[in-house]
Amino acid sequence: MKQCAICKEQKELKEFYKDNRHKDGHYSICKKCHKDKVSNYKTTSLKDRYINKAIERARRKYPGVTFNKEEIYFMANEYCPRCGNKLSYGYNSKYSPTLIIQQDGSIAIICRTCRNI
Ligand SMILES: [Zn+2]
Ligand SMILES: [Zn+2]
């Protein structure tokens, strides 16, 4: 038996999806909660999630700077202004958008690859 991290119910292991990254080989949340989570995810668009994440990271990196989500959402173009590659919001993409503050103090959204140069 294993306790689900979300609903806190004790359930049989078969009620959990397999995941090798976990010590017991199963996710910490049960199949049912997993489903709820996934459907929640789908209602928020990928772009939305990525922008939220990028802002979160930027806030940690640049404490004291205010980031306006709407403005940034609007700013996030389809293409990276540096390399011209299409920004993609897929999982672990080389071109997922990242927020940076440029030397002149303005905010830019560039791809992950350019950020690492
Ligand atoms: Zn659960
Ligand atoms: Zn780029």
How would you describe this protein?
- This protein has about 120 residues and is of the alpha+beta class.
- It has two domains: about 1-45, no CATH class; about 45-115, no CATH class.
- The protein is built from four helices and six strands, in the order E-E-E-E-H-H-H-E-E-H.
- It has helices at about 30-45, 45-60, 70-75, 110-115; strands at about 1-5, 10, 15-20, 25-30, 95-100, 105-110.
- A two-stranded antiparallel ribbon has the order 1-2. A two-stranded antiparallel sheet has the order 3-4.
- A hairpin with a 6-residue loop joins strand 1 (about 1-5) and strand 2 (about 10).
- The chain is elongated, with a radius of gyration of 18 Å.
- It starts with a strand and ends with a helix.
- The mean pLDDT is about 85.
- The chain binds zinc ion (2 copies).
Structural class: alpha+beta
Number of strands: 6
- What helical percentage do the residues reach? 25-40%
Order of helices and strands: EEEEHHHEEH
How does the major sheet shape up? 2 strands, antiparallel
What is the averaged pLDDT score? 86
What radius of gyration results from the CA coordinates? 18 Å
| Tally of distinct domains | 2
Estimated share of beta-strand residues: 15-25%
What ligands can be seen in this structure? zinc ion
Spatially, the strands of the biggest sheet line up as 1-2
**Low-pLDDT stretches:** none
Please count the helical segments. Answer: 4
Question: Ends: how far apart?
Answer: 47 Å
| Overall outline | elongated
